[in-house]
Amino acid sequence: MVLYTPGRTSTYPGEPVRTGLRAFFLGGGDEVGNVGCILEDSTGTRLLIDYGLAPTRPPKYPAECPPVDHAIITHSHIDHMGMAPWLVGHLGTKLHASPLTASLSEVMWRDTYKVSKIEGYPLAWDRRDLEEALQAWTTHQMGDWFEIGAWKCRFHRAGHIPGAVMIEIETPELRILWSGDMDTRASPNVLGALPVECDILFLEGTYGNRIHPPRIEEEERFVSKVLEVVDRGGTALVPAFASGRGQDILRILRREAPNLEVHYHGMGTRVTQLWMDHPESIREPKGLSKTWRWCRRVSGKSDRRKALDANVIVTTSGMLDGGPSIWYANRLRHQRANAILLTGYQAEGSGGRLLLDEGKLRIFGNITPIDLEVEQFSLSNHAGQKELTSFARACAPRHVVIFHADQDGRDALSTQLAGEMKVHLPSNRVEIILE
Ligand SMILES: [Zn+2]
């Protein structure tokens, strides 16, 4: 299947921008994930921010990107960088990111490629594009200015995950802040984002309608549940994303319950090694290396079987959509003392959602009842409504563009902020002009 016919499937406006800033979302404008947005002004400077795909089944892809010389990738999640090899292979785009995000790209892209082959879903780029994309990175340290056309840009820490950035852009007329996926709260592996004064704020709104419980209390509730499961002789299965949540869980467990036997299994192994190569991006990096030595990493088949007797298994995929988490769930489901502890949002259509709603999982193709305790914890690394609104107020922009959100998130944030700044709720493939 051909996703794009370069130059023919793009709906980007043909005319140059006369005044102000044009923002054109290729994806992620009125949805979570799948992000790509072109910014352009009257100097003719054109920049793409992020180019991801939503790893749903089947995946969702952003619209075809028009010719663009530069793209900045905010962080290493696949819904923000998954389609970048297409840019390099077809448009010759140069990619910019933090050093950690650039080095994580190889793991993320190779995994995307592998999964697309296994699942048989279309991908618009091939292995050659991937190899070229690995050579297309220019990296920038936090706070260092660099030029894109007539604009100056610099990165700020975004919280969220190690290496994630917000982008400050200075055009001849305007100061812009692009939040990327962000959190102002510190998490075990990364400190929170700080506000930057600007004229135009592009603000993610994933949890725009949600008030997070205090993070520390939620971490304590999680640890107590783990201890309860272990006390009754069970194993706690904790499905968690490979980049971010899994490592957070390990650090929380080591801090609060160092005597537990915790096994880690999944793609996060490679990710964590790269994190440790970039200590400047990690909160208390020594704590991470100690945690990594403390847990047991599962590699071979016999390790897997041993892990079934552990107190806790932390593993991928985070939404029980395959990977080792399904293998473990299948083994652990027969023993009622065991439990499955979900540590974040479970998307519509995901395995985790099916488990929460119907107490069932798709195991090797069969819908299987799971008669275990299932509990969900809110350990998200996205800012909630309170954090988003106080961040927006501290940035004091004239315009706020709320993206990466569903309708409820957009409406809630819009209601909160409307009296104080002009709120824009973009749709994909419809330009907005900001002055
Ligand atoms: Zn993200």
How many helical stretches? 13
Radius of gyration: 21 Å
| Biggest sheet architecture | 7 strands, mixed
Q: Report low-confidence residues grouped into runs of 5 or more.
A: none
Shape: globular
Oligomeric category: single chain
Mean pLDDT: 94
Structural class computed from helices and strand pairing: alpha/beta
- Which strand order do you get reading across the main beta sheet? 6-5-4-3-2-1-22
Please state roughly what percent of the residues sit in beta strands, choosing from under 5%, 5-15%, 15-25%, 25-35%, 35-45% or over 45%: 15-25%
Tell how many strands the DSSP assignment holds: 22
What can you tell me about this protein's structure?
With 435 residues, the protein is α/β, with parallel strands linked by helices. The protein is built from 13 helices and 22 strands. It has helices at residues 78-81, 84-91, 99-119, 127-134, 215-231, 245-256, 268-276, 285-294, 301-307, 324-332, 351-358, 385-395, 407-417, and strands at residues 21-27, 36-41, 46-49, 70-72, 94-97, 137-139, 146-148, 151-157, 165-170, 175-178, 200-204, 236-239, 262-265, 296-297, 312-315, 339-342, 360-363, 366-369, 373-376, 399-403, 422-424, 432-434. The strands form four sheets. Strands 6-5-4-3-2-1-22 form a seven-stranded mixed sheet. A seven-stranded mixed sheet has the order 7-8-9-10-11-20-21, with helices on one face. Strand 9 and strand 10 (175-178) form a beta hairpin. Helix 2 (84-91) packs across helix 4, helix 3 packs antiparallel against helix 7 and helix 12 packs across helix 13 (407-417). It starts with 20 loop residues before the first strand and ends with a strand. Bound molecules: zinc ion (ZN). Zinc ion (ZN) binds at residues 75, 77, 160, 181.
